[in-house]
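Let us work through a complete example step by step.
Step 1: write down the sequence.
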Amino acid sequence: MSFGPSLAALLVGILVSAAAYPADLERGQVLYDNHCRMCHDSIAFKREGKIARNYEEVRAQVIRWQANTSLQWSAEDIENVASYVARTYYKIPCPDC
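Step 2: predict the structure and record it as tokens.
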């Protein structure tokens, strides 16, 4: 899969700046409930072979899907949702939880 230069730059910027924000798990839950839960609640976390195996992979999936659905979340919102999902569903420790 090939990303255009602007999308690649956006993803790099998000990844680099994400560590600057301590996670707000309540905000992450609100964003997840409003934008992700309708699709993910049914199967995503119930299947045996989960896609993400560590925090960075969870964050990469949040970045991917917020871009695919044109949510245009800030780096802080991405970090909040990734932290909430990692902690709640994957039981993976996150850096700023």
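Step 3: interpret the result. The radius of gyration is 13 Å.
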